[in-house]
Design goal:
two-stranded antiparallel ribbon, 2 strands, single chain, Arc Repressor Mutant, subunit A
């Protein structure tokens, strides 16, 4: 099951953070069709956010066809976004790179900015 982490300083709306983290879990194969998402109550207890925020995120995921709400049962994954497994060799290389970046003194924001810059450079126009 996915565990949401909310970054209140990110400038990204809380419901979008939930949507993005769910999509990330789908891409990485951490969530698969048939898996149940945490209930709104479970997310609220873990993150101290408003239940309506969780429901808004789940509605957005449902609108995109990624999940489906089953009355009285919960919200379930309908499809995956993954094209490569979470144990891809590229993940190991990226993990090694992140360790080197941290050892070189870069913080999370520095790494994110660097990675985003490289993504834009190599994937421009793919969006």
């Amino acid at each position: 099951m996915v565990e949401y982490r909310i970054d209140r300083r990110s400038g990204v709306a809380t419901y979008l953070q939930i949507v993005q983290q769910t999509k990330q879990a789908l891409r990485m194969g951490l969530l698969e069709p048939g898996d149940r998402l945490p209930t709104a109550r479970e997310v609220v207890e873990a993150t101290a956010i408003n239940p309506n925020t969780v429901l808004k995120a789940y509605r957005e995921l449902e609108r995109e066809g990624l999940v489906e709400a089953r009355r009285g049962l919960g919200t379930f994954v309908r499809t995956t976004l993954g094209t490569g497994p979470a144990d891809s060799p590229l993940r190991g290389e990226l993990t090694d790179w992140a360790r080197r970046a941290r050892a070189a003194g870069l913080d999370r924001e520095d790494v994110s900015a660097l990675f985003t810059s490289v993504l834009k450079e190599h994937f421009e126009g793919d969006e």
